[in-house]
Amino acid sequence: MRSVLSVTAIGLPGLALLLLYGQTGAAPDERAGMAARAEGVVIARCGSCHSTDLITQQRLNRSQWQGTVGKMVQWGAELSEEEAVLLVEFLATRFHQTAPASVTLNEIGAAEPLQAEPLVIQERPSGISQEGAGVFANNCQGCHGSGARGGFGPKLAGNPILNSERFWQTLLYGRGGMPAWEHTLSRQEIANILAWLKTL
Amino acid sequence: MLNADGEASVTKGHVVRVLSRRTVLRRIIQGLGLTLALGPAVPVVQARERAAQSDETDRLITRVARPLDAETPVEEFVAYLTPNSRFFLRSHFSPPPLEQLSDENWRLRVAGLVEQPLTFTRQDLKQFEAITITAVVQCSGNGRASYRPKVPGVQWEQGAVGNARWTGVRLVDVLKKSGLQTNGRHVQFQGADHPGAGTVPPFVRSIPIEKALHHDTILAYEMNGRPLPLLHGGPLRVITPGWMANSCIKWLTDITVRYDEAQGYYMQTAYRYPTRPVTPGETIAASDLKPVELMVVKSLIAQPRESASLKSGPVMIQGVAWTGEGTIVMVEVSLDEGRTWEPARMIGEDLPYAWRQWQYIWQATSGQKTIFSRATDDRGITQPETSPWGPSGFLWNGWDRVRVMVAE
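^ inputs. structure came back:
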């Protein structure tokens, strides 16, 4: 029988622990099937009080999803312990901070395996300009042109954004036609590009 | 009670005539789903009446289909007053059953730390002087989608705001009629909308007595000269000019004068923001959080629109700007990523609490261009490039930014 997780039974701290340490422990090929199951759980258990568009428009990291699912359980969402763990895993994977703008519940489909997303860390190391040139050539030049003089993307040489936190925000999370680099480049590599751009 | 059909038909982020009368009806019926299942049976015919009574609500961008959250496309803000049917909608729960709001059944109760608890009918409220105030009403989460890292909540872009003329009676007059006890420090509001499940906290909030007694704080029954529409909280809602809309309780039925703040999730946990800089992921002590009250200085560009294709030559840039309880003294425009700023011309009416219109004639040259705007208020506070990050994403007021393409 499904054991309905109620706050009175295990308490909120208990749920938090469960969500933090609960492991799905599945092999990658099993995970695709789990995604499909999780979609079903969202539709069955999360749509009674509000439409599920409130869920699919969020772009949150794992701990934010843990907090949200924990709050919903406290407010009456009926989830078994196993479903709660599955759901956080699913939501943190599909609706993470840098997921595309238009992900719906089952648009990407069950084929997408679940994988963990690291927490967002506010880290701004200082860069080494000599090492930035190569990273730029490999990743950015195609769009921003050689010497960062502009192309498909705007001119970056002498661009005041280089002295602004918006540089980091744009690099990490993307914007319009500009991809997000959070998971592709390290903070150090981004800092190196920035240092190099400032020499132009 | 999931209505897959209704949800599937909503195209998020697209401006369509989202809410035809029939759609409003369907939404309301959907919203009633839980009530129908759990609570007193509400005949569908009443929902139909309700939809017929509410103003037609068109051209809004739906963020959440149920309960309905929808924002105004920014280009509407070329108008000084935002029409009722184009004014953003924010609902914590579905609207209350229509019969509770009828003249016969609806009552306003004043209780708590008063000399004499009183109950008012709609007719009774006519004994008080009617006043009209033009004021911006803005959701505390307006602009939440701009925060990085992203935060949970309705992902509002720019349009959860509007400027309207609100007519009603002063809250202070109603409170005085009941007689205030000297230890009353906070005034609590509750509306007739209730969560569908008993486990969900009710939407109960309070404001400090100073704001409650301010002669511009009103209980409004008209919006832009028309009876307050159902979806905007009719028959009666609180208007706290200069403050964020979290205190503008809709479908008001209960006023309670208290010594302490209202208790419960929506006052003690939600609608609070950090009073010091915080980094994502850090734990914030309750003592470092304070209720969202005053609006912050902000401007929006209503024209031209994002991704517009323009011709080189003179281009009219126009928009609106507002702040908390003060006035706007300057709006500036930048066309070089914020390096240099040019003052815009202030136009139209200059009223406290309302927004101010502005315009700027730009000699556009060809290429992809970005227009920025920022406002400054009479306290000398200027709209920042980005707003300080907080875990709930309230009070966004970063520079507004529109990218356009200018042809030869």
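The mean pLDDT of chain B is 88. The interface with chain A takes residues 1-2, 6-7, 10, 12-13, 30, 33-34, 62-67, 148-152, 154-155, 195-201, 279-281, 336-339, 368, 385-386, 403 of chain B (CB under 8 Å).
thumbs up if we can close this ticket
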